Amino acid sequence: MELNITFRNDISEISRLEGFIEQVAEQFSLPMDIVFNLNLVLEEAVANVIMYAYPKEEHEFIYLSASLKEDNTLVFVLTDSGKEFDPTLEPDADIDLSAEKRRIGGLGIFLIRQIMNEVRYERIDNKNILTLEKKL
Predict the structure, then answer these.
(1) Does the predicted model carry a pTM greater than 0.85?
(2) Does pLDDT of 42 surpass 60?
(3) Whether the Cβ atoms of residue 20 and residue 64 lie closer than 8 Å to each other
C-alpha cells in the first residue's frame, strides 16, 4: 500500500505534514520513536523544497509518497519540479565547530542522513526525486 500527499510550495503547508505522518504511522504500525524522527526528517526535506526550489512567485506542487517494502523498509519519495538540487552531494556539516565558525545551512541534510538508512537523489524529466529509506 502507498500513501500520498500533495503540497503547494507555501510554508503554511508544512502543518499538513504531521497528519500525513500520523496516517503513515497508523497504516504501518510504527513505534513513536520512529514517528518522531520521521517528523524531523520530512519536515526538513519538505521545508527545504518549499523555501528553495521555486521562485517565491511560482505556485507549484510537491508530492510525497510513503510505502513499505517487503523487507520492512519504509520508503518516502519526495518529488518536485523546482530547480535542480542534489542534497547527497552536500558535504556533512562539521558539528564539532562552534555555531559561529560553522557555515550556514547543512544541518538539515546532516540530520536526514543520520536518521535515515539510505538517501538517494535523481533528476528525471526535470523533476527532483529524493528517496528516503528507513529500515524498521
Answers:
(1) yes
(2) yes
(3) yes
